Amino acid sequence: MKESLDPRINRTDLNVDAIEPLEELDQFQTFEVFHQEKRGQQHIHVGIVHAPNPDMALLYAKEQYARRGKTVNLWVVASNHVFATDYMDDDIFSTTPEKIHRDPATYKVMDKINEYKKRVNA
Amino acid sequence: MDFFNDEHVAAAKDLLYKMADDQLIIGHRNSEWTGLGPILEEDIAFSSMAQDKLGQSEHLYNLLHELGEADADTVAFTRNANQFHSCHLVELPIGEYDFSLVRHFLFDMAEFIRFEMLVNSSYENLALIARKFKGEIKYHTMHANTWVQQLAKGNEESKARMQSALNETWPLALGIFEEGKYDKVLKEAGIFEGEAALRDAWLAQVTPLLEKAGLSIPQNAEPVYGGRYGNHTDHLQPLLDEMTEVYSIDPTADW
Fold this sequence. Notes:
By secondary structure, chain A is an alpha+beta fold. Chain A contains three helices and three strands. Chain A has a three-stranded antiparallel beta sheet with strand order 2-1-3, covered by helices on one side. The termini of chain A are far apart. Chain B is mainly alpha-helical. In chain B, 67% of the residues lie in helices and 0% in strands. Chains A and B meet through β2 and α2 of A and α2 and α6 of B.
């Protein structure tokens, strides 16, 4: 008799040696989980769950990813329904960080705004 | 609510005890699956719901405390089996997953309807708790029903297991609705419509779901009564001994 690490298993007095190993089962598919904190906000990807179908994926998404804090809505999407770019092609993004003209934080407009406010209030 | 007389207080206590004891015992039973669930996600979900049940029972024990009973921990951890008002359904060992799932389905459907009924109770503090936990218990019924539908339509083995679990649990589930000593008083005081009304509402909701799953409800089942009056199976006392093992070492310890 093998000793299990779990005392509850040992208490059941199973004859572990006599149990025939099961055939390896197919794994459940995975679903991507998207979490919405407030109505109107975007759903944000938070991780995956294993489940045999969307209904059960939603059940598990609730306990895995809506355990704390606020939630108003969850989405699940079968992982194989997600289409992605190829990491081989990630060079298509290589010059993007240099395009600071697309980053609003790089524009210095406060002076102009203050000047405008002054003019309007005058 | 201002209780009109002592009988109303006794009636409210009786109702609170059966609800809280059911939740405490099934919560403890279901927590025995922690670490042993069929897949990680289900293990987490089932354990979380077991924890929810303990939380719900604590709120009800606190109401009992307001009505003059000892504090929640003392009430939960220092009584013997014959002082518990829980039904036999909740105290039986977890068995295999089919048994635990069908028990979870039948019990939580009843619990959900009971809380829906209590939302408008004249006993305001109980109505507040019913409103607070209705959503939490609704998830428990969604979880239970999704599993029941899934497994009852799975394959021959899963269907046979669900049917046999239903045959075993059905008479026990009818025992949830054992007539209470104070059902008439509760109804007259507007606190709760009573176990018979709950059973009828439960049958009306559970029957179509089981039919949809293709399961047959056992006919002429004899309800298993006794739990509400302190008569229990031999399974309850060992559960209480295990549940209170740590508490009993030092009941005054601050956790």
